[in-house]
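pinging the channel bc i need a second pair of eyes. not urgent but kinda urgent?? the chain im working w is below, pasted from the shared doc
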Amino acid sequence: MDNPKINGKPVFEVEARSVLNLDSGFKHKLLCDGPTFTAGSACAYSCSYCYVPSVMAKSPHLGRSVTGGLPHSEVVVRRRGALSALRRQLASKPVRDKAGDRLVCYTSPLVDPAANLELAAETADCVREILEATAWDVRVLSKSPLVERVASDLEGYKGRVVYGLSTGSLCDAFARAVEPDVPSASRRAKCLRDLQAAGYRTFAMVCPAFPQRDYAAFAAEADAALDFGACEHVWAEAVNARGESFARTVDALRGAGLASEAGELERVAGDRAAWESYSRALFLALAARLRPGKLRFMQYVTERTAGWWGDMRRLGALPLGAVAPA
């Protein structure tokens, strides 16, 4: 029998032994205080710039015995029995020792948690289990307006869940090229504003933000579209080279007739100084619109650039990587 499909991608399952990670590297990005959970290993979406394929390259969840040799970008991998596995983990001593702490748990580090109705319902069930078993808050990031279904299902926990819609590009044509099966950027921005209007806690995720002709204009547009003032925090990041993501993104832009945008991305990708200049211009434009403490601009630094970004922490820079200042 053929596998079921999501967004045209065949769905495979692996047994869920663990879905909750108590000490995730995402705490360095301030998205959580250590805990994350994910109910999948390969996403229903196919964003050209996605870093997860390089992270999961050696995962047994993507082995030939699971997917038949299909690459990560062409499959959806779910974790069978994710809710039961989460319950077992929540009942374990390591979690009980931390359950009373007011931590933030993040979902999802690997897949979109609301790419269709079934995934959104699964996410709501998992978040509810965490909220009932711990004193934690949960941060939910999605590219889908179906995150509103998650919010509706968790209405009784309104003060403990923070919702974000990833919107690195605000141009629908550009976003369609690099995020071909994701709801439009304008729909995502409207969803975030609708959540804000309904009194939900929100955050903005301007990631990855691509090179711009006018960074101040882009920051103003992002502010207007996402209502920075109504967000608890605003995360942002320049596009980073991971695996083959740059080449895939350039090809996607050219294929959509966006040759100028593809050329600009190639220019900064091939010139470290140009990439650094673009990152700084993007950061400064966003910092000019946000009070200190609200912006969290994630930047992987080198020994040469760590000093500048360390000095910019007062404006919201968040230096990352092995040589990032403590």
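so The first helix runs from residue 52 to 55. and Residues 167-326 form one domain. — does that match what u expected or am i reading it wrong
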